[in-house]
């Protein structure tokens, strides 16, 4: 708190002492909402002109709403649902369509194409988790396969970063909170010489999370810092080239999940006797909860855990790109080349127990296991895109291109537990070649038709080698149906699988303008998600033998095929100070790649299965900008469900009366995971001018209905509905260049989760001599803002 007061005092002085010369270079802030620009469709377009439901967040709104990591977008774009970004792979969701993959599911596409300056970010990387160096954030809702490609089956999120400018400008931002967060960003751009411009941004920060390890007296936290630089060369009137380089390092300590539910009376590892009477007859089974999880109550809202294990993560990014543009009359020829590399390391606690459970259960007579597992590896991606575009002002104009990407994820996993060893090298490769074209034709003053096609060719590979002693390259002896070694003709513990497939997708939209400031559109989109190997599935000693017909070991999961229909309305009112946009949609997914955990085994195994699913709903956005007032209200009603999904895995402890028959259930008609039916977000900023300074009042309100966070319908993964309120008050210089803002996030101190998982449940239950009853064990990820905190933010622009 002392640091907060010192920074705040200094900031007020800095605001009031802002030099007068800065006024000449003040950045312009328009009051015309109809001029919002979108770049995520590979060309510069006005939001109000395109037949796509989209949300565009300015740098100012991102700052005011305290959007500091990817999951914060949930609070400002109702159609988005992202399951946390701390210490693990991020499941993305749009319009109720999401993934559930963990960090072991390498090579699986998320369905949401994350881009930075139009370059797709590998689904296995963490490069976009931290929101920094953002000039604008764009969200395109619904399938975008024609231009977004193989990873855009649910939508696109594009980060537009700061770039070179013709005039000298920059900004300094900093923030600090009373719970220990601090962040900073400095950016500068301008001309270097005739025809040469640059931009350079440096950023860093420390983010605490409301999670504490009682055993190690350690609070979970993440740190990151990075640099991004760009050089733009204008070589004559018709040619320009931009070079980008980026480096970032993100580290974390502590767990991101905490226990939220454990079946009353159940124990950890209940199928192993832990106490005996004088006759050697077991009297107790497993490890009691008060021993395995001491010092806190396991219930919804818990933010504590107890573990002797040191949990860490480290992600190091190095990437670059080269963009070339050549203007030839009405045509623009472009090339975009990128290279991305990320080094990854992550350590975790198995079952999050406070005791070395295997040592306890075996009385120390088995090799020691320290509840520890780790994964390390590298993500590499190269992309190349060529495109040609005609002048969009022409009555008939087009955009066409060719795209190539080559992605490789090389991961080493180690869990040296003799009862369930997982020491393997997991390699996923993905190669994509695509060509696309989109044509826009104005048939009359009020009618426009837009149509596009894309051809994709995908080659995927999965190479996995499972070892017992990785250092010496010794293969693990797999137990197949109780045999010490694989029978003749059975699959060995090393696999090298490949698959390839093709897809043709496209879209068509009809636009009608009854007036210059009003547009109605109807569109149809045909999309897809490529085949995928279930790279999490492994053949450890506790699993049954993979049969010759077992799909995870013989062939990839089938493609998704998507049919999406959308009706939209866009309008600019009140002399273009107000925009009101709305869309109604219906999207059907045939072969939806559902992801559930099979918790019938000690360590839950991800199951990747094709199902039928659909999502339907209505979205509306209202933006008002005039003078000293800015307001935005967005709302979405989304009904996303499985249409056909028989034979799905049961949730832990599910009984026959609850629909689990023979170890499977029918999820047809059940809701998709992490898909609240209703979400709303409102943001307002009001500037009150005084003689020497301005006062800026701000507020953000977001609310959502309840939702199950797991597709297996586990009732203990339900996040109840809630609302969040954030308030701020700022002091701003008259030229609007310098500002200090005091804020409170989550004013009502409402706890909520961004994710909940039940993959540990297979190791729990209640056992007696008469039989065994499976248990239910749910861990959840408390959101960064799942508790109230205060802070101050300083910004200066020149």
Give the arrangement of secondary structure elements:
Elements: H1 2-16, E1 37-38, E2 45-46, E3 54-58, H2 59-64, E4 93-94, E5 97-98, E6 112-116, E7 119-120, E8 136-141, H3 145-148, E9 155-160, E10 169-177, E11 182-193, E12 196-213, E13 218-234, E14 239-253, E15 258-262, E16 267-276, E17 282-287, H4 289-292, E18 304-305, E19 312-328, E20 331-349, H5 357-361, E21 372-390, E22 396-414, E23 423-442, E24 447-469, E25 474-475, E26 494-515, E27 518-529, H6 551-554, E28 560-573, E29 578-598, E30 605-626, E31 629-644, E32 648-649, E33 664-665, E34 678-689, E35 693-704, E36 707-708, E37 718-719, E38 722-733, E39 738-745, E40 753-757, E41 764-768, E42 771-774, E43 777-782, E44 789-797
Parallel strand pairs: 6-9, 12-18
Antiparallel strand pairs: 1-2, 3-8, 4-5, 6-7, 8-9, 10-11, 10-44, 11-12, 12-13, 13-14, 14-19, 15-43, 16-17, 16-41, 19-20, 20-21, 21-22, 22-23, 23-24, 24-25, 24-26, 26-27, 27-28, 28-29, 29-30, 30-31, 31-34, 32-33, 34-35, 35-38, 36-37, 38-39, 39-44, 40-43, 41-42
């Amino acid at each position: 708190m002392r640091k907060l007061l010192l920074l705040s005092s200094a900031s007020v002085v800095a605001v009031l002492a802002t030099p007068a010369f800065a006024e000449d270079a003040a950045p312009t802030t328009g009051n015309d909402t109809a001029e919002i620009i979108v770049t995520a469709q590979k060309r510069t377009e006005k939001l109000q002109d395109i037949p796509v439901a989209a949300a565009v967040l300015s740098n100012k709104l991102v700052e005011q709403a305290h959007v500091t990591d990817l999951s914060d977008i949930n609070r400002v774009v109702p159609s988005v649902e992202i399951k946390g970004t701390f210490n693990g792979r991020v499941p993305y969701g749009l319009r109720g369509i999401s993934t559930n993959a963990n960090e072991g599911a390498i090579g699986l596409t998320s369905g949401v194409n994350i881009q930075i300056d139009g370059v797709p970010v590998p689904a296995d990387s963490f490069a976009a988790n931290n929101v920094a160096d953002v000039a604008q954030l764009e969200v395109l809702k619904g399938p975008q396969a024609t231009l977004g490609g193989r990873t855009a089956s649910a939508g696109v999120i594009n980060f537009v970063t700061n770039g070179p400018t013709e005039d000298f400008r920059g900004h300094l931002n900093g923030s600090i909170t009373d719970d220990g967060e601090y962040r900073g960003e400095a950016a500068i751009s301008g001309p270097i010489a005739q025809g040469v411009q640059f931009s350079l941004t440096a950023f860093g920060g420390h983010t605490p999370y409301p999670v504490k390890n009682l055993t190690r007296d350690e609070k979970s936290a993440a740190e990151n810092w990075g640099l991004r630089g760009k050089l733009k060369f204008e070589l004559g009137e018709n040619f320009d080239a931009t070079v980008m380089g980026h480096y970032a390092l993100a580290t974390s300590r502590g767990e991101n999940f905490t226990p939220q539910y454990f079946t009353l009376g159940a124990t950890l590892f209940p199928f192993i006797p832990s106490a005996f009477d004088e006759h050697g007859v077991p009297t107790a089974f497993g490890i009691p909860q008060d021993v395995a999880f001491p010092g806190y109550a396991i219930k919804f809202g818990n933010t504590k855990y107890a573990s002797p294990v040191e949990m860490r993560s480290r992600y190091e990014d190095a990437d670059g790109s080269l963009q070339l543009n050549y203007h030839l009359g009405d045509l623009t020829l472009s090339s975009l080349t990128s290279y991305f590399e990320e080094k990854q390391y992550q350590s975790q606690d198995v079952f999050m127990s406070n005791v070395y459970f295997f040592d306890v259960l075996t009385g120390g007579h088995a090799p020691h296991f320290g509840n520890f597992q780790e994964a390390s590896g590298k993500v590499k991606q190269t992309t190349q895109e060529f495109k040609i575009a005609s002048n969009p002002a022409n009555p008939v104009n087009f955009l066409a291109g060719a795209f190539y990407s080559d992605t490789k994820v090389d991961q080493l996993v180690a869990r040296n537990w003799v009862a369930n060893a997982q020491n393997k090298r997991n390699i996923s490769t993905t190669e994509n070649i695509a060509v696309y074209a989109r044509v826009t034709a104005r048939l009359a003053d009020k009618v426009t038709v837009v149509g596009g096609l894309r051809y994709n060719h995908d080659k995927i590979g999965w190479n996995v080698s499972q070892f017992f002693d990785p250092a010496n390259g010794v293969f693990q002896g797999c137990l197949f149906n109780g045999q010490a070694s694989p029978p003749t003709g059975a699959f060995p513990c090393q696999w090298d699988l490949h698959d390839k497939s093709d897809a043709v997708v496209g879209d068509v939209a009809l636009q009608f303008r009854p007036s210059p400031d009003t547009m109605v559109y109807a569109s149809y989109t045909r999309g897809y998600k490529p085949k995928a190997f279930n790279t999490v599935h492994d053949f450890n000693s506790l699993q049954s033998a993979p049969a010759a017909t077992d799909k995870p070991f013989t062939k990839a999961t089938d493609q998704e095929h998507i049919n999406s229909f959308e009706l939209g309305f866009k309008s600019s009112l009140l002399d273009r100070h107000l925009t009101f946009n709305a869309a109604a949609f219906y999207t059907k997914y045939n072969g939806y790649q559902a992801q559930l955990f099979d918790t019938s085994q000690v360590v839950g195994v991800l199951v990747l299965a094709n199902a039928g699913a659909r999502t339907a709903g209505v979205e509306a956005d209202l933006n008002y900008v005039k003078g000293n007032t800015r307001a935005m209200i967005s709302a979405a009603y989304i009904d996303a469900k499985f249409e056909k999904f028989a034979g799905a895995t049961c949730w832990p402890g599910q009984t026959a009366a609850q629909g689990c028959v023979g170890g499977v259930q029918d999820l047809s008609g059940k809701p998709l995971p992490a898909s609240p039916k209703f979400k709303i977000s409102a943001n307002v900023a009001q500037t009150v001018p005084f003689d020497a300074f301005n006062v800026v009042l701000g507020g953000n309100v977001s609310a959502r209905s309840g939702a199950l966070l797991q597709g297996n319908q586990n009732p203990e993964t339900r996040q109840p509905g809630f609302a969040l309120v954030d308030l701020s008050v700022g002091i701003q210089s008259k030229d609007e260049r310098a500002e200090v803002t005091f804020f409170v996030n989550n004013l009502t101190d409402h706890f909520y989760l961004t994710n909940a998982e039940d993959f540990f449940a297979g190791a729990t239950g209640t056992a007696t001599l008469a039989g065994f009853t499976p248990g239910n064990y749910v861990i959840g990820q408390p959101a960064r803002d799942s508790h109230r905190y205060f802070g101050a933010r300083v910004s200066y622009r020149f």
